[in-house]
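Weekly puzzle thread! Below is a chain. First person to post its structure in token form gets bragging rights.
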Amino acid sequence: MKAFPVILVALFFALNLSPVAVRVAPADLVFKNANIYTASERQPSAEAVAVKADRIIFVGSNREAQKYVGKNTRVVDLKGQTMLPGLTDAHHHLSGVGFREMTLNLEGLTSLEAFLAKVKQRVDQKKPGEWVTGRGWIETFWTPQVFPTRWDLDRIAPNNPVFLDRADGHGAIANSAALKIAGIDKTTPSPFGGEISKDKSGEPNGMMLDAAQDLVQRHIPPTTAAEAEQALILGVQRDIKLGWTQVQDPGGTYADVDLDSRLYREGNIKLRIYKGLSAPGAEARRLFKDGPIIGAYDNRFTVRTLKLYADGSLGSRSAALLAPYSDKPDTSGFLTIKPDELQPLLREALRQGIQIQTHAIGDRGNRFILDQYEQSMKAVLRAEWKIKEPRWRVEHSQIVNPRDIPRFKALGVIPSMQPSHAIGDLHFAPKRLGIERLAGAYAWQSFIKSGSIVPGGSDAPVERGEPMIEFYAAVARKDMKGFSGEGWHPEEAVTREQALKMFTIWPAYAAFEEKLRGSIETGKLADFTILDADIMKIPEMEILKTRCVMTVIGGEIVYQSE
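Winning reply:
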């Protein structure tokens, strides 16, 4: 008699839990037979995902996913391909990527003569007096490693002003014609936050660092509206094809915001953009006045961040160091902003709920901005903070004194870092810094162990902006030929699970979006990156050969390879 109710209860649960008995609304899209890494600790892997509109409604097995298939459901058989949460580049200059595709791209050159030959090809296409501009050269990959000079450019461009940005954007080389137009000679002083480099006789050699670049740039004909639109669309198309579903774009103007908004309204861009505005200045004042834009155009567009600069770059020797450069002891770099400019802005940001992200590369630059953040946080009572967890960021955090690493976690500051910088810089950073200072260089694992999250980016167009290069760099900590130099601290490499978080859930957290995206979980936005190989298991070098075969944003397949 006692067994009878037990049988009834078992039968009841069997019926109600069976795929046939459970009725669910059919999905718009079901992916099956996938090798899914969810970036969720509750359910790390799965075989299938179901999507309704722009949201995930199911994550699990192929068998269970079948109940979401209706007569109008599109079913995509991934045949074992690897699905990741939609990848995010946490530091990506979107228009810069597009302009790199449109203008003179000087990447990949290996000597001064090759550089000059490529520039001459562009000069020959111009009329006398027309400007020649471009970007991407980096002398640390040249043999020998020498900066170009104005006189080098004069040989191939005597009748055209030339201005060519170094890859990092913190240095540029101008020829004599460009310097003459800008009125720069041996009597011209360097501006604060910049340097007009000069030879031993005091004559400008053509290298313009950081703020000094503006002395020439202001004379270059401005970008047209049509060019700006073309650059943005080119950048978006390239990123989606590579598998990025969001880019966090630091620095810009309300003109950029207006362009982004129009292209979203017209349906011409689908990529999610987390946009920062340049500060201090008019853009910051307007953001404080108008307030942030959050989740516009179906959660594709947010503007809630101000981008500042604390120093320059290591390659150009303008990053601010605590001690002189090992290969140029007469300089320690320089800061590019003053405390009296920073403090009013930082304090207002706390009261208004505006996120701050500051470029800092050198150990002095990083300590300076941590000090400034801490000072403002102490000056404004926590009761006055609009957001109790402001999630301020330091962009790059490349060279950090080891004793400053725990301060990031203590202050709630996020080190936003770009793995590819380490695998390029390993060829010159030891010369710039000396072996001892490499202990705090590109210290991803040390930051993670201290309790920080580390959102990963590429800093494109400074670097190439490809997700597989960034993932490889994070887990291998070697250059793209497998080389790692002396004192390069291989223990700072991350695990593949950590690398996955660096480009998914951690950038989502850095954008206040961890409940919205960044992992494959029910209720979150249906953003996926699908690859032709399992980057969580294949040998390191094969990661670089892996390609995106499909990009899904908000439940829409926005790219599919042939």
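Puzzle host: Confirmed. Bonus trivia for everyone else. The domain at 1-80+518-562 is CATH 2.30.40.10 (Urease, subunit C; domain 1).
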